């Protein structure tokens, strides 16, 4: 990460950049990625809140987590969060639908799209909970593997107009990640073990994709306790 050209920016500057995308006149998909604990979810939620529902909607990649029962059947539950613990083909297909939606709606081919959502309190995805209207100009999506170069992730990337890689300092990222695990019920020991174990292995895979981003950014604002 040290060799990358990292831009420091305030939230207000990033919001202005996102707003400019929304006023481009066409459907635009903005992706936000980064390692676990980087603050992707928090930034994405703040941007959508700032722009408002007339301009933007958030469709997280986490809605495509495989269900826990499926992970147990595949013997992948202990690696939950790795790229093969998601329905990546489903996510890629949804991104392609979302990218085409606005033009298709005028021809009667696509109306409201309902995207899934991930409930962290349940640790399960819930289907068809996020309505994406054809009239919404900016769709924000966030997740770990938007820039991964093995299939089918590149098919999702093709549908995303611009990808930002969020790059806090490593100390800040780990602190936020451990706090998040504790907030969702893990003991301090369990939170640290998870953060430095499977999460760290995933973080190393994700960090290697940063060079494919349109913008590598370090947020100057104080991090929110909801960072993800």
From TrEMBL:
Residues 29-219 form the Phosphoribulokinase/uridine kinase domain. The keyword Transferase applies. Keywords: Kinase, Transferase. Pfam families: PRK. GO terms for molecular function: kinase activity. It comes from the Bacteria. This is Nucleoside/nucleotide kinase family protein. It comes from Microbacterium profundi.
């Amino acid at each position: 990460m040290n060799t990358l050209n990292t831009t420091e920016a305030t939230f207000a500057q990033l919001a202005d950049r996102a707003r400019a995308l929304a006023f481009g006149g066409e459907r635009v998909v903005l992706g936000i990625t980064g390692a676990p604990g980087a603050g992707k979810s928090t930034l994405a939620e703040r941007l959508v809140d700032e722009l408002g529902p007339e301009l933007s909607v958030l469709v997280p990649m986490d809605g495509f987590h495989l269900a826990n029962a499926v992970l147990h059947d595949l013997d992948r539950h202990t690696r939950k969060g790795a790229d093969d613990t998601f329905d990546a083909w489903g996510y890629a297909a949804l991104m392609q639908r979302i990218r085409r939606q606005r033009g298709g709606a005028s021809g009667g081919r696509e109306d409201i799209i309902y995207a899934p959502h991930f409930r962290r309190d349940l640790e399960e995805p819930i289907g068809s909970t996020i309505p994406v209207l054809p009239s919404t100009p900016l769709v924000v999506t966030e997740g770990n593997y938007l820039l991964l170069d093995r299939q089918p992730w590149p098919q999702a990337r093709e549908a995303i107009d611009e990808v930002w890689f969020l790059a806090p300092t490593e100390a800040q990222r780990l602190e936020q990640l451990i706090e998040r695990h504790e907030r969702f019920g893990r003991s301090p020991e369990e939170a640290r073990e998870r953060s430095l174990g499977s999460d760290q292995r995933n973080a190393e895979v994700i960090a290697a994709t940063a060079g494919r981003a349109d913008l590598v950014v370090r947020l100057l604002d104080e991090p929110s306790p909801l960072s993800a």
